[in-house]
Known about the structure:
The complex is a heterodimer. By secondary structure, chain A is α/β, with parallel strands linked by helices. Chain A has seven helices and 14 strands. Chain B is built from six helices and 14 strands. The mean pLDDT of chain B is 95.
Amino acid sequence: MKPFHREVLPGIHMIQECGGHRAGIAKTVLAKQVSWYSEGVELHVPQNAYLLVGDRTFLFDTLSPAASNVILRGLDEVLGNRPLDYLALSHPDVPHAGNTAPILRKYPKCQLVAPRSGETHALYHLDEAIKVGPDDELDLGGLLLRFPEAKFLDSAVHTWMTEETTKTLFTVDWMGFPHLGGECLACVDELDVEICVSRLEEFHSRVMFWFQYVDPGKVQEATNALALAFDGYGIAPAHGLPIRRNAAPFYAMMNEVVERVSNTGRGGVL
Amino acid sequence: MSGVRLGNGVTWIHECFPEVNGHLHVSVYLIETPRGHILIDSGSFYHRDSLADRINHATRGRGIGALILSHSDYPHSGNIPSFRTEWGDFDIVASCADPEIQGLPYARRVRIGETVDVLDRPFTILDPPLADRSHTTWVFDEESSVLFVADGFGTLHKSGECHAAWGELPIEGRGNGVADFHEQTLPWVRYADPDRLMDSLRAIFDRHAASWVAPIHGPPIAARDLGVYLDNLDHAVRSISRK
Lengths: 270, 243
């Protein structure tokens, strides 16, 4: 098994499910002749789970059911004999929550944490979970978590997260982008190339398909407010490589992305 | 009761989930064909036993031969494993996402725009403007002209109104039910350009003359009531996007 987890920030481990080569996206970007992709190179859209290890341990999202072995092995290798104290779900979407049951079986004393927003928790087996929202904090001992509102979200039961000692914003699904085969597990600051608007566009035109129906100005206003609220924070996306430094340009690029998708429509499906 | 017949072999089998502003339907639809029954969505585990009983009753114990899934969100796909145990390895048509990532490695993936045969009955897969998950598909039954939709086109309803088609709901409060549903279920609508969204929805009905719009999260909307529903939805989208 190739490496699939690493510590990306002090106490924050990324466990990554790269999945297979995204042939559909590769075909599209080859036709567009983008500068960042060459034929024959693998192209991935990752699922990332983040394991936070302080005095207590906390997993944010579970990877998809196709990667059950990846998340369970990753937990084994990082935690060793330590328990998993908390399992939090950004939202109860199968690619993010699909391994909840096997993880809770492996760690029977683990507390399930769910977004407070929304009303359909019982339809997702989340009625007994600890609920968190923008007014809540969770101190892991050495790491401090908060749960800001997810500004761009699939459904009502949804949260983002921050870790305050490292100043990291965990976004789901927003700020995702594909990476190349040689970029797996990397952070953006370690790449030889810069992430460009085109990469962000390929992801969001498929996943945030509803960008084609928005007033771009409204989305941009919300994006600019996010940039202000989280000035100085890095971003750890669920579907992209961690942006540990200088996240500001990414907010500006997302403003261009929504403009593009609004004009050109849906890019396809993942 | 087994369900409400919409005609051409299509039956609405509805369950309800109580919310603060009213009841939410979490439904499935059963289609009878000469080759067996097709289920649209599998419903929530929350209603598993009741759904299984009602489907068994409606199919005279034979169960289903195929299932078409709008998307793999748990209120829609939650009973697939138990239904496979109950009725065997029926054909599963699983929307446009990677089946393995969606937890359905045994499912048949479809493409938006294609027409697929399920138990020799053709269904056209449509790109849904009003959805929560990006891999959602709307499904148009070419034989009955019923358009199955999720999650959009829902309506919150009051206790006691659970069995009514949309046109049978009391007019007072019906529009609020449409608005409340979409505001809480599809939070991205707050960013919508109402004209753009509504134009795309109306264009679907220009291309597909639906006899019924059959939502998973609301009562079915008969063709004669669709215009009024769209007007209510238009009002709702404008109201939500102004907040």
